[in-house]
Design a protein that fits this description.
With 411 residues, the protein is of the alpha+beta class. The protein is 28% helix and 25% strand. The protein has two domains: 248 residues, TIM Barrel; 86 residues, Immunoglobulin-like (Sandwich). α2 crosses α3. The N terminus is likely disordered. The structure holds zinc ion (2 copies).
Length: 411
């Protein structure tokens, strides 16, 4: 009897812990934590709002996404399965499109990670793929109308045979195409009814895949004007698009960067020096979901991508000014050369170029301030210990080919 009880006890412990994931243990290298300080005006939320699991075309269980996010110090995570594309349907035939989210959310219980519901609406380009996050019910964003089957047959017939041969008889392919025939506008009106935040995914590689000669089409402009799309991925995974960046600025869309991970973050990003996943830093009033969502709608984001900060000028300035400061400034002996220590409390490896003509001694006028490091420079011809040094921040962009400028000051 006792043995039996022990058996039951062990089993149930295992059952209860099945969905849970471990956070960082003492042996873990914590350098992978994404760290940016809060700014003068905002809390900085690191987010990855585009990830996949085995519930669509990803290769891991949703709780692995939670585990990775905890290891990376992510504050806000969305698992955004393709609604229409379920290539593992023979193995994971789950009809509920909220399921991946629920598993990830439950596995993050008690952790400082907010998991929100989201989904990827998948259409041929244009408009291409679109993410809706903070959705209330992903099931309402899919609509299969069987009367459209003849259109599906015609479409599948026209697909390049070599690329789809192994899937051609799979029911999920048929249903995926059928689901994608629901007009995008109607789908996004449902997303709007759910008060979702909606952004256009990887415009550059979508247009390339579907052999379109340009990114921006009338349908996109129309969806922006109707306020059905609020943001755009300027960065998706390891890709960055200047053209998408310009569209964001022209149409006042929220600038987004995501991992779009399907496999493992470690394999995709962390095998490079200073590797980190692509994320969106959100400048929020506080850590509540409500404030974070509000910040997304107001466009307060900066993308952190391959050691580059990308965003609208005012947002990038917030992050840079919070990260860099003058720690010390003292004259070198009896000279008029000022020794200045610049401290960086963020993960960015700042590359700064003096832009106001001040004379930098024993150094080129371009210098770096390492992540969580201090750089000493010498400013010649100084009259007092007050520093006012104008620099361009070369590892940051506020428009295609344009760096932000800040003044480093201890006034
Ligand atoms: Zn996509
Ligand atoms: Zn995706």
């Amino acid at each position: 009897m006792k043995l039996f009880l022990i058996f039951i006890y062990t089993i149930s412990l295992n059952l209860f812990s099945h969905g849970k994931v471990n956070s960082i243990d003492e042996f873990e290298d914590i350098d992978r934590l994404i760290t940016f300080p809060d700014t003068k005006n905002f809390v900085v939320i690191s987010s990855d709002l585009h990830t996949h699991s085995a519930f669509s075309d990803g290769h891991v269980w949703p709780n692995l996404r939670t585990a990775e996010a905890l290891r990376d110090g992510i504050d806000l995570l969305a698992i955004t399965e393709h609604l229409e594309l379920q290539p593992h349907k023979n193995d994971i035939p789950h009809i509920d499109r909220n399921r991946a989210y629920e598993i990830a959310r439950d596995s993050a219980e008690g952790e400082e990670l907010i998991v929100i519901n989201g989904t990827e609406i998948t259409r041929k380009f244009p408009p291409g793929h679109i993410n809706a996050v903070f959705v209330k019910d992903a099931n309402k964003l899919i609509n299969i109308d069987r009367s459209k089957q003849p259109e599906v047959d015609e479409y599948i017939e026209g697909l390049p045979k070599d690329r789809i041969q192994e899937y051609i008889d799979e029911p999920w392919l048929n249903d995926g195409v059928l689901a994608a025939l629901w007009p995008i506008e109607e789908t996004l009106i449902e997303a709007k009814n759910q008060e979702a935040f909606v952004f256009w995914n990887h415009p550059a590689w979508s247009s390339e895949e579907d052999s379109s000669d340009k990114l921006l089409h009338e349908i996109h402009i129309d969806l922006f004007k109707q306020n059905l799309i609020h943001g755009i991925e300027v960065v998706n995974g390891i890709w960055f698009s200047d053209e998408a960046f310009q569209i964001a600025l022209d149409y006042d869309l929220t600038i987004m960067g995501t991992s779009d991970v399907h496999g493992l973050i470690d394999w995709d990003y962390l095998q490079r020096p200073n590797g980190h996943r692509s994320v969106t830093l959100i400048l929020s009033e506080d850590k509540t979901e409500k404030s974070i969502k509000d910040a997304l709608f107001k466009g307060r984001t900066v993308v952190w991508y391959k050691n580059i900060l990308i965003g609208k000028n005012e947002n990038v300035q917030e992050i840079i000014n919070a990260s860099l400061s003058i720690k010390n400034a003292n004259f070198k002996g009896n000279t008029n050369v000022l020794l200045v220590e610049i401290e960086n409390i963020s993960d960015a490896n700042f590359q700064l170029r003096v832009n106001d003509g001040q004379l930098i001694e024993n150094n080129p006028n371009i210098f770096s301030v390492a992540p969580h490091g201090i750089t000493k420079i010498e400013i010649g011809n100084s009259k007092s210990t007050k520093v006012n040094l104008g620099v361009d921040v070369l590892n940051s962009y506020i428009a295609p080919n344009m760096h932000p400028s800040i003044v480093l000051s201890n006034l």
